[in-house]
Design brief:
Layout lengths: L1 H27 L23 E8 L2 E7 L6 E10 L9 E6 L3 E4 L8 E9 L11 E3 L4 E5 L4 H17 L4 E4 L6 E5 L3 E4 L15
Antiparallel strand pairs: 1-2, 1-11, 2-5, 3-4, 3-6, 6-7, 8-10, 9-10
Length: 208
Amino acid sequence: MMKTRITLLTVLVGVTAAFLFGCLGDISEPTHGNPADPDNPGTNSVDPARPSGLAAVVSDRLIAMAWGVSDTTGIDEYIVYRWEVQSGEAEEYDEIASVDEMEYDDAQVRNGVEYSYKVSAVNRHGLEGAMSYPMSATPRIFSVAINPSSKADTAKMGTTLTRMCEEDPTLKWRQDPTTGETILSGMGDAYLPCRGLPSDHCPVYQPA
């Protein structure tokens, strides 16, 4: 009888010890996880840096944008989001592209329509960071009437405009047969900083 009690006590002690060691073993494992890679909880689950300084160059049916990131470590790609501001719909950004570089040309736009963009970074584990501040841009072809102030200026204007158009093939000039005004038109590439944001988030670019 005594031998049976000793054997039972030995078994209970062994089971208790195994349980405790098992718990300690669980505690020693990483407690954080990676939602994008749950099978590898030891991978880095820190969100990538937020893109900043989003700016664009607009021209005829084209918005070419670029941005920066304070720390590119581990970033695998960037996702570009767009919202057509003048669509009449509530603010909703749709993913339109994923790129490897910190730039993107959006040619699926219409002249005279305002578009707003945001960009986010994705690390090599598939985690997407916070979106950038929004940037708005409107592609357009500009057209202006030029009215010389004197006859001397009128005589020089043709030569000057011709030279301008030779330097920039996107520019054209003509005489309006109805008003007699000289009309200069073209793509008129213009650098647009993001609007309505603090200056430290929005660098100002000047046309070349």
